[in-house]
Specification:
The complex is a heterodimer of chains A (137) and B (420). With 137 residues, chain A is α+β, with helices and mostly antiparallel strands. Chain A has one domain: Alpha-Beta Plaits, CATH 3.30.70. Chain A contains two helices and six strands; from the N terminus they run βαββββαβ. In chain A, the strands form two sheets. Chain A has a four-stranded antiparallel sheet, with helices on one face. Chain A is flat. The two termini of chain A are 21 Å apart. Helix content of chain B is 71%, strand content 0%. The chains are: A alpha+beta (137), B mainly alpha (420).
């Protein structure tokens, strides 16, 4: 079963807070993420992962009356911001929770775990659920 | 573009893959190395045979190429460890290429069975076992398996290599399970084949042209297992269940990929030949005695498939069979199916009463299926309001697009009726 795992970080200044960390904290955090990615890649669970640019580069786009894009933003005052996401393919919900908790505990300043909020969403499948009772098949 | 020659070669390769791997694994004693070597031999054959023609002894050809690759690997490994040996090098280069005859290889069905038991071992996670079985026994390429599961090829390659490592580290020997182990090991083989079959249960054929047909592959592998174990009732039952389910493939989705439930399917689209074969198999299995869960599920599928019209369905017999299944399995989905059958026999109130007993079931509580079945039974009872409520709850709870759409459509129709 596939999940999208979204890492939300506080972004009060329009920039990621990581940019203000000490070199050691910064390096430790990046190394942690590399190691995490290597681990789920080796396990054959990684489908995709991407990091996103900071809120300063985000734009909200709507279609105007003539269908042309109207953009809004950036949004430097946003409290929480999507910093990156993974798409994982795992055997159970429990395993997905385990991976999300691992990311959540990524090291922050002084090496203390950030325990940031990680949003986990099951990805919809284009197949009927094989456990369906016969009525719906 | 695939030609007839390509297809003939491909079919032959899939058939020979487990036999050759069985012999190579038995001779070299290392399953993971053998699997790599055979996979390379299969790729060599897939590129060479369509142009050069299928060799006189294709099995021997594959075996010889795989054994060469195995030696090459051993040699490059040794070279890396600076323990290389020039004499060995010369010898293999001068070796004439003469594939051994089948008799020399000692190919038996046992090797294929051992392979299946190994790939479906409980030491592996379900997804690893599925991937390894498709590659090692099914002869599919990593790219084909990856496309079937909609994951990148590198991810699937990693999953397969992990599976082989797990086998290595768990110390499973390449040998037939003992009599004591056999029933348990066979049940995990059947489970993996059933998982593969269900993975192929796609909803919209038109959009799936580039996807590997996993249901077809599961049927092919189960046929192979049935040929090797013709007297095992559960193997026969599983093959029958697959055929009797797959027979409805053309009728179970509409033009836009929407789910068509059994009671609304155009039964003239059902594959009569598959149904005939499935019914013959399930009758054989029942006649042989000791009845298991796959046989019972096949018998239920057969009752549906035998009914020319939905109103001809023999629900009392289906209810009796689900009752039997319920005693063998603690799967709450069986209890749900039983409640549906009870509603069809004794009316919706009887079914709803059974569902309220399931509200306390740990595995089922809050599961969208419970809402879906409850909605159906309220609809049967003419209680549109409650039906709408539960259809909506079920639609919000499912992670399957075709089911969500189906449940939302049912809610919308019930709303239309209650508004009218």
């Amino acid at each position: 079963m596939k999940y999208m795992m979204m890492m939300n970080t506080p972004a009060g200044t329009g920039d990621y807070q990581i940019n203000n960390w000490s070199p050691d904290d910064f390096t430790a955090h990046i190394a942690f993420m590399h190691e995490f990615n290597r681990r789920i890649t080796d396990a054959g669970e990684m489908v995709a992962c991407e990091g996103l640019t900071p809120p300063a580069q985000a734009r909200l786009v709507r279609a105007g009356k003539d269908g042309r894009p109207i953009t809004d933003g950036p949004f430097p005052e946003t409290k929480e911001f999507l910093a990156g996401f993974w798409i994982i393919d795992v055997d159970s919900a429990a395993r997905a929770y385990e991976l999300a908790a691992a990311v959540s505990a990524a090291p922050g300043p002084g090496g203390a775990p950030l325990n940031m909020a990680v949003e986990l969403r099951p990805i919809m499948s284009d197949r009927p659920d094989p456990s369906a009772p016969k009525l719906a098949r | 573009m695939s030609t007839d020659a390509d297809e003939t070669a491909e079919h032959l390769l899939r058939e020979l893959a487990p036999q050759v791997l069985g012999v190579v694994a038995r001779k070299c004693g290392d399953f993971a190395d053998a699997e790599d070597a055979v996979q390379e031999a299969l790729i060599a054959a897939a590129t060479q045979w369509p142009a050069a023609g299928i060799p006189m002894n294709p099995r021997g050809w594959l075996f010889s190429v795989a054994m060469r690759r195995l030696k090459d690997h051993v040699r490059s490994e040794s070279a890396r460890r600076r323990r290389e040996d020039e004499v060995a090098n010369e010898q293999t280069h001068n070796e004439p290429f003469s594939p051994p005859a089948d008799a020399e290889l000692g190919v038996t069905g046992d090797d294929t069975l051992v392979l299946l038991f190994m790939c479906c071992h409980r030491a592996l996670s379900p997804s690893s076992a599925v991937a390894l079985t498709l590659r090692a026994v099914g002869g599919l390429t990593t790219a084909e398996i990856a496309s079937a599961f909609l994951v990148p090829e590198a991810t699937m390659a990693q999953r397969i290599s992990r599976a082989k490592q797990s086998i290595k580290s768990s110390g499973v020997a390449f040998r037939m399970p003992t009599d004591d182990e056999r029933a348990d090991r066979l049940s995990s083989v059947l489970h993996v084949l059933y998982l593969i079959f269900n993975e192929g249960y796609t909803s919209s054929e038109g959009l799936e042209l580039n996807r590997t047909d996993l249901s077809g592959e599961a049927i092919r592998l189960t046929r192979m297992l049935h040929a090797l174990m013709p007297n095992n009732g559960e193997v026969t039952g599983l093959l029958a269940l697959m055929l009797l389910t797959d027979a409805r493939r053309a009728a179970r989705t509409g033009a836009r990929g929407e789910l068509i439930p059994l009671d609304e399917q155009d039964r003239s689209l059902w594959d009569r030949q598959m149904i005939g074969e499935g019914i013959a198999l399930v009758s054989d299995a029942f006649a042989a005695g000791a009845v298991g869960p796959y046989q019972i599920q096949a018998a239920i599928a057969a009752i549906h498939d035998e009914s020319a019209r939905v109103e001809d369905t023999d629900w009392p017999q289906i209810m009796a069979l689900y009752g039997l299944l319920k005693r063998m399995s603690d799967n709450p989905m069986v209890a749900l199916s039983y409640a549906i059958a009870a509603a069809m026999v004794d009316g919706p109130a009887a079914g709803l009463a059974l569902l309220s007993e399931l509200d306390t079931d740990e595995k089922l509580r809050g599961h969208y299926r419970l809402d879906a079945v409850r909605a159906h039974l309220y609809e049967m009872a003419g209680d549109e309001e409650r039906a709408i409520l539960h259809y909506r709850a079920a639609a919000d709870g499912t992670a399957s697009v075709p089911e969500r759409d189906y449940l939302n459509m049912k809610a919308a129709r019930a709303r239309d009726r209650s508004d009218a």
